From TrEMBL, chain A:
It comes from Paenibacillus taihuensis. The keyword Membrane applies. InterPro entries: Spore_GerAB (IPR004761). It holds the Pfam family Spore_permease. This is Spore germination protein (Amino acid permease).
From TrEMBL, chain B:
This is Ger(X)C family germination protein. Residues 24-199 form the Spore germination protein N-terminal domain. Belongs to the GerABKC lipoprotein family. It comes from the Bacteria. InterPro entries: GerAC_N, Spore_GerAC-like, Spore_GerAC-like_C, Spore_GerAC_C_sf. It comes from Paenibacillus taihuensis.
Amino acid sequence: MNMKLKMQRVSQQARTSNQQSKFQITNGMFIAMMVNLIFVKAIGVTQGVLARSIGQDMWITTMLGMFQGMVVIYITYLVLRKTPDLDFMSLAQRLLGKWFGKLIALVIFAFFMAGFGPVMLTFVYHIQDYFLPEAPLILFFVAPLLVGALGCYYGLEVMARLALVGMLFIFLLNVLIIIGSTNEFDIRNLLPVLENGFPRTFMASLNYDTDWAFATMLAAIVMPSLKNAGKIGGTTGLIGIGASGLLTMIWSILEGAVLSSEVTSQYTVSCMKLARNAHIGTFLQRYEMIMIALYSIPILFEVMFFIYATSVCATRIFGLKSNRSMIPIVSVILGTYGYWIVGDHYRAINYLEETWPRIALPIAFGLPVLLLILRLMLGKKLNKQS
Amino acid sequence: MKRAAVLLLSLLLLLSQTACLGLRQINELALVTAVGLDIGDKPDTVRVSVQIIRPADARGQTGAPSGGTGQPIYSISAEGSTIFDAIRNLGRFSSRRVYWAHNFVIVMHEDYAKKGIEEMVDFFTRNHELRMSSWVAVTPDRPDEVIATITGLEVVPGEAIDRLFRNNHIVGRAPASNMMNLEEAFLSSSTEPVLAKVSLKPRGISNKKPEEHGSLEQVELAGAAAFHGDKMVGWLNSKEARGLLFFLERLSSGIEVVRCPNNNSEKLSVEFKEARTKVTPSFPNNKPHFRIQIKTNADIVESGCGINLDQEVRLETQKKLENQLKQNIMSVIDKAQNNYHSDFMKFGDVFRNKYPTEWQSSKKNWDLMFAKATFDVEVKASIRSGVVKAVGTEIR
């Protein structure tokens, strides 16, 4: 009886700290959140990294990465399927006790904090390098963090609805880039296929894995807020990763065919290179400002969600009831860390290509697999408790 | 308390969202429409010439509108040890800040191009303001003169050169080289860059003194500059450039002049159209071989032969057209292989796509392999009509 009460408290805590008691997200919102989270960095900087490692096969590496992401999101769903009201942290607490729950919260916190570097370098290098080179760097941190903190303060509903708008903008962005680039499309630039062999192409896909890692960690935190998560969580997750992969592949194909992989590999923000080349006919040129406006909503959602995820994790670590008090604190921590990464291009690129995959991949692959194993081993205990 | 906090946060948000940072008023900008690059007078320097538009005088009319000077452009040049340095030195003369986003064309002198264009490619692709669709050309004349010469009907010379390039597919005598395809070819391991040639020709006729034919210089877009790596290695004439375009831009139409079958001193103009080019590589005995097949339809658009254009004339003209197109192609291949030792016709690309494994071992000495490559050129032309006039039958 005592144990049962304790477990109810854990579920209650999961709900209150996630601010999900009043609002449950629909599967469309969940997919939109995943797409927003993956797409921004995947087209912004990942394609350049892929072009540097595998050349014109970057669209194949994106596809291979997408399939790996689908496997991992399904594992994430399997972990939470029988206890859809629990997130990873609450589940860990029920499996091995409070300390383990806090440890998992700390790991997810570390993941999102480390991931904020690549997110901010994507955002800042887009806006500062191409539009406002004279604006102070601090502006690019204060503005999105303020917007992000505000959205996060109003909770998951605001973020989920913003993600839906972001999804619409992503579609428009893709339509604009397709129309503006078809004229220069040269399929010969995508040949030969698998020039560096399958093993090397597969290894290069790990760079794209760091992008869907955001989405699986999102699922690890948000899936309990999804309506009928136990039934539709798996399919919704698969659609989310698949849609993100396909929307990203449009860019990797266009960057390869229009710019060539050699040109793509030269740029930190390769999508901007493609965007500034795009033109519709002779008179509609340089419409990258429109495209960046469309891109801004997904990227603001991304910042917003990172604040949300870290604040929820911090709430669990310190055993607080609501994540609202942690929002300003994590915003400052994220901002300081992001500023340190982005302030130096050399550090930023090295972090993006070397350090970040080493942090992201073990967590993205390891955490769902570890929890699945624990769940299989300690499933009986969990069933007894519930 | 809560309201005050929200108000404060909103004010902070508003402050951070202002658009005043990085603001540049249009009337404070010097809008560049053409750039010239040349070797500077001092050793190891570069001279940058820019053609800046005067908005008040460039409203689509010639002469001096009220408040204007009558000169639609303002051209200045400066020297520096690098392009960036020279551009900063332009600031010593220009009363407004130089703005690149509306640049139409970059013209380099051949001496500058022969020294190497790596710096130029890097500068203009690193510059976020510049359009990647800016045309790039090489000239044997002074680039500052080329970019300041008013050609055609346009008021702004840069815009006139832009129009020449945009209509280039009709004439088909020079590659439509822009920053985008220059950067692509420059960075590629399997092809070399090739740029359009622009030059000054005394072809303009003054309205005031029509008897002085050729008193006005005009910019001509014809021919090409071939590169090896980042250095220009030589020129291609307009016929060779025609042959080149079948490979670079999948040229589908153009005019060829052939001799009459009945009279060698008279000529026929034939317009070929819907031309399709196919390049098939093979690798017998570790030696690259390329089979080039061109199939095209054609119309007789002008005849000075004075005979009925019957079946016999048709067959004869077809053969002459085929030979002429083949000759254009062979001459450019010969120049690429034997004179310039540079594969600017993308044969390396085709070979790499068909033989990726072999390419890995041969890409390092592709220049040598390309020099030994053999070619089969097959042109199949089919004359379909004499446009509006009846062909094939005589008045009985």
